Automatic annotation (TrEMBL), chains A, B:
Keywords: ATP-binding, Disulfide bond, Glycoprotein, Golgi apparatus, Manganese, Metal-binding, Nucleotide-binding. Its cofactor is Mn(2+). The keyword Nucleotide-binding applies. This is FAM20 C-terminal domain-containing protein. GO terms for biological process: enamel mineralization. Belongs to the FAM20 family.
């Protein structure tokens, strides 16, 4: 309970700071300078209710900049300034074991076991090879207690996947980009399919069968999604969202956007030029995977999906002749250590040609959801709304399920996994993705103030995204039209909130964060569905 | 036997005329005008051996133009001039029943039966509809003894699918382009599959499952292949020929090219904007076909393949919102009236990722083929070489089988069906397609002299093709780079012949046409394979 209070105090302080920054300062300025409006967009004119004085501010790196125009014009790093902004510097209390996903020794024990298993396996393989007079390539593995993936796993808390200034995250991105790959295999999802797909189903999600699990020299694991579309190609207008290709650059961009929004619910993703011969074909010990490799008429190394109904070379991806762009997403801790559940999104789409879900036809759908466990209390619905804002910004219509860590109960944050179907069409804003926000008319105050910040010229979302994405080796990750679309969509989110406020008032719409669930922290089994 | 002699005489006359035109006249001119070379390309410098005086010329519309430069520069119709050229006006003797594919009354009887069957079927359908109080659309059908498709079928002879000046052919093209569609269905090939595809085969030809059989108001039937690729798109370099898309414009262009080469072995093909709602969905009585129609997110009417393993909407084709470009290829007479056999091409490709057929590794492969029935005598091998030249010009690598009418025995002409995989890459010339010519070093004299004619500026192949294709409603059928590729490839064919002549001499390489088979006109069952 004490920790909760501390947290509440920290939040209120942040809100007070925002209030001071967004409301009081401009008001003072407008008194002094006449009616000069510093905020160019109407949707940005929310005033936050005051909670000043309720708690002592606990802010680190607090810097109050002189004027907003200085910020916009001095040519410095907008991204650095964003991350030094008070809203991005709320101090999180020291984490207890309840707030940590893993116990202190757990990841290290797991790591030791994996290395021992690998070494046994390699020993047996080498013995067998020596008997058959075959030379096998040795992959130098390292046991590194300082491995970045280990630090990432250890740092996962009930607040987010990583803390804002965790040095392990940039290191993990660098490691995924550079480190030697010692093994490649299908992901568990694919293995579960055993190559047998349900071909009787006319309409089903497809195209996800080309992802691979790569193991790095330090035993870090990453999911590799190869490039299947050029950055300037738009999804054809006749494609349904469920047959849209997966885009490696959307995975990368989604990680950066999520970090910029301060959600930190997307595992780190880095771009990499993967050598499909040396880093997949040569290192895999899965014969099925080896069997889907071929050399194209243009002498490029290619591979296609395992599932037979898509085992056509039209679906293949090819290196040039061996190098292929792709995204590498860091694996979460093993399910045995940190179980997760996959829950059907109440705003899921129909995944049929003409079917419509209830939310598409019933404007009062949210009232029904609000009465259902676990959306009837706590943060779950607000988390769904956060996710819908995130998906609207990336234009990802394929959010059929979401995952949470069971350890953190019903109020645990939602994992924003699988973002590769975003960024398909820059010219279109799919308003239906915002349905949870526009139908429920609720938003977390912490989310809103950050969105407002990112709508300001000095922190413009497209600018901070462009800057953030420059850090990836596959830059430019997004084309300019996709970056501009982010600004346009952000305005639409803010307008949607404004409409709600006009209709229902700020008190109703803008909701305090960190409201603890009043229900028992159990999981409603009816909502659970395995992915 | 007498008819054969007449034919031989006619051919020799044509050759004599060509000799006069190509060899003697230029020689005379060069004597008179110095050493001015009228032919710009080296490969065009063949001299034909003289057969003058052996037979009386039997030429219609013989016009000897003044000078070649006049022909090239006066801006008239090159295509008309090509078709008035003596080489395109060799008179065919009056056809006897042996030279005709069908007996006089056969097509009409077939037609009457079909109309009677349709009317019975419609009567029953209307009665059933009346009982259930359903309104059914009536399709006005006409019994037209002058129907162009009927004339086309009646005109098929042992020489070609149609005669050069048959007025039924332009009429048939017009009818396929304009006439009302009264019914649509899967083709027999597809029906044979019953929607169950062999998905265990990793590599198999695909993409052909979207063709449909359309029945016109006058009971003419055409195969509809919808547009699946924009004209300016090139086949990706990593695609194998057997997964390449089928191109409707390649079907149309192949018909025009075949006619220009004077082969006349491709059934007439016309382009058409098909209304997939009104002319397919509404008129089909096949429920399976109706079931694959859907409305896309962009509100266009789309349909996808019947075969389940490709029943993904990525494969769908969509109208805009209903109109969809496609090629309509005239049906040949029913197999019950005019049986055909499908024979494996000795120069077929391996249809695997890395397999190689014998012809690809053995430079003496042709010697083996030449010893095998039916390639050991008669015209069959020369016909294969004609086909390889045709396929090289269109760059179609997918000629795994060819068909012949059984009635005309081993020396019957080869049908050049299924040309939709041509014209995929304008920037590349796939020399391996020419293997039958370059390995066997034989070519029909009649083919060679026409190719030489089309290499001359006054009849330039790209120019006559451009002109011919202007007659189609979907013009421009081919982009300019594809037209230029035809000229470039034609030069390569002529150079291949030249190399053979240098090595083996004209007498060996340039072969007299119409050599009758010395073997029994039976079909070698070992070579036969059903498609």
């Amino acid at each position: 309970m004490r920790r909760d209070r501390l947290l509440l105090a920290a939040t209120l302080t942040a809100i007070f700071s925002a209030d001071l920054y967004f409301v009081l300062l401009p008001k003072l300025r407008s008194v002094g300078l006449g009616s000069g409006d510093l905020c160019p967009c109407g949707s940005d004119n929310f005033t936050l209710p005051r909670h000043g004085g309720l708690a002592t501010p606990q802010l680190s790196n607090w810097t109050l900049y002189g004027t907003t125009s200085e910020l916009a014009d001095d040519g410095g790093s907008k991204l650095e300034r964003l991350f030094s902004h008070p809203l991005y510097n709320i101090e999180i209390p020291v984490l207890g074991s309840e707030e940590r996903l893993l116990q202190a020794e757990q990841p290290m024990e797991y790591y030791r076991k994996k290395v021992a298993h690998w070494e046994r396996h390699m020993h047996l393989r080498n013995e067998a090879a020596a008997l058959s007079n075959i030379t096998v390539t040795e992959h130098g593995v390292t046991f590194d207690p300082e491995a970045s993936w280990l630090k990432f796993h250890s740092g996962i808390s009930s607040y987010a996947l990583y803390s804002r200034n965790d040095p392990a995250i940039p290191k993990l991105l660098k490691d995924m980009h550079r480190m030697s790959v010692i093994s490649a295999d299908y992901t568990q999802d694919e293995k579960a399919l055993k190559g047998a797909c349900d071909c009787t189903q006319v309409v089903k999600p497809s195209g996800h069968h080309l992802k691979l699990a790569l193991k790095m020299q330090d035993f870090g694991k990453a999911m590799f999604k190869p490039m299947r579309q050029q950055r300037d190609e738009e999804t054809p207008e006749d494609f349904f969202y469920f047959v849209d290709l997966q885009r490696h650059n959307a995975e990368i961009a989604a990680f950066h956007l999520d970090r910029i929004l301060d959600f930190r619910r997307v595992p780190p993703v880095a771009g990499r030029l993967v050598n499909v011969s040396g880093e997949v074909l040569l290192v895999t010990q899965n014969e099925h995977l080896r069997a889907v490799f071929f050399t194209s008429p243009a002498n490029n190394t290619c591979f296609f999906a395992k599932c037979l109904y898509v085992c056509k070379t039209e679906y293949a991806v090819c290196g040039g002749p061996d190098l292929l762009e792709g995204s590498l997403s860091a694996y979460l801790p093993s399910l045995s250590m940190a179980p997760r559940i996959s829950i059907s999104n109440p705003w899921t789409r129909s995944y049929t040609f003409s079917g419509r879900e209830e939310w598409e036809v019933n404007p009062f759908y949210c009232d029904t959801v609000k009465q259902q466990y676990p959306y009837n209390s706590g943060n779950r619905l607000l988390n769904i709304i956060d996710m819908s804002i995130f998906d609207f910004l990336t234009s990802n219509m394929d959010r059929h399920h979401y995952e949470i860590f069971t350890k953190f109960g019903d109020d645990g944050f939602l994992l924003h996994l699988d973002n590769a179907r975003g960024f398909g069409k820059h010219s279109q804003d799919e308003m239906s993705i915002l349905a949870p926000l526009s139908q429920c008319c609720m938003i977390k105050r912490s989310t809103l103030v950050r969105l407002q910040l990112l709508a300001r010229p000095e922190f413009r979302l497209s600018d901070v995204m462009r800057e953030s994405l420059k850090g990836d080796s596959l830059q430019p990750v997004l084309t300019e039209p996709h970056l501009s679309a982010l600004d346009r969509r952000l305005q639409k989110v803010l307008r949607a909130v404004q409409r709600c406020v006009r209709r229902l008032g700020e008190e109703y719409v803008i909701t305090k964060d960190f409201v603890k669930s009043t229900g028992t922290p159990q999981i409603n089994t009816e909502m659970r569905k395995d992915r």
